Amino acid sequence: MNVLWLFAHPEHRSLNAALRDDGIRALRAAGHEVRQSDLYAMGFKAVLDADDYADEQARGDAGRLLVGDAQEDAWRAGTVRPDIAAEHEKLAWADALIVHFPLWWFGPPAILKGWFDRVLVQGLASKVKDAEGTTRRYGDGGLAGKRAMVVTSVGAREASFGTRGIHGHIDEVLWPLHHGTFFYTGMAPLPPFVVYGADRLTREAYPQVASGLAERLRGLWTTTPLPYRPERGGDYDEELALRPELAAGERGLSIHSAEPDDAPAHPPTSPHTHSPHTRPRVGRPSDSPGSGDRGAGLRAEGAAVRAG
Questions:
Q1: Partner of 306 at 20 to 30 A CA spacing, among 4, 55, 251, 272?
Q2: Position 231 in a domain
Q3: In the prediction, which pLDDT does 289 show?
């Protein structure tokens, strides 16, 4: 399998960088080909703006930039910026994506959001049409056939991201990525690998977490994806609302999972990791839902790292 590891963390001595290195080693040891986009190391431009589409012919009336149209025109003409074209080549090569970042303010770092904005262009990832002119999305699309998995860290305790947690369930926190990005473009979203209490992870506990990640990566092609309902599977009406007989009387994001009570479980392998489909446990106190980047010094594979 060809795997693209998309990494967004500014510190090469961090916990996340250590997990990235160990994860890539595990994939290669299993016979997979791995390429990496280390966005901070690359100095990747995070902001989509008019400089990405300087050709005035790609603009609408009175020179107004119409982003979607400009993206598709440039993509079809082969005139996208070189940094975007390089990511398109990696994306086309990949069978699976690992999207790895610390959770900051309930989302990924801005540089990663910029990668999605600039790389997942219209025509390639959105507004893709089938032979009848119907838009392919939510379970189908330009990236259909690929798999995607989030690897992330948070500073908060696991229970606070559980079914009754103050931060909201981790499924819903990651919904914009899992459903709105991966599933929308046709990729199969896998349950995430989440490291909780990252700023309290000790040197002694790190190998257990790294082992847990390696185990998840070994199942990259066999793990059952999150069971979202495809748009064209018959569960939605003409207004794209879930049919009233399905999940009757319920509301919220969970109704868009076809089997919310039978989702695949991936038990945690250490007190610091968990799958969103296992029962949350009460962990040690934490003062922040963030990634815990300030944490105590760790050492992994002989390199000093910091939690987060």
A1: 4
A2: no
A3: 59
Q: How far is CA 196 from CA 205, 272, 279, in A?
A: 12, 5, 14
- pTM for this structure? 0.83
Tally of domains in the chain: 1
- The CATH number covering residue 163 comes to 3.40.50.360
Give 134-137 contacts, CB < 8 A, sequence gap 24+: 134/232, 136/186, 137/184, 137/185, 137/186, 137/231
**Residues 6+ positions from 210 with CB-CB distance below 8 Å:** 18, 19, 22, 23, 300
In a domain, 301, yes or no: yes
Lowest mean pLDDT across 72-76, 97-101, 289-293: 289-293
Query: For 95-101, what is the mean pLDDT?
Result: 98
Backbone torsions φ then ψ of 205, nearest 5 degrees: -85, -20
238 domain-assigned: no
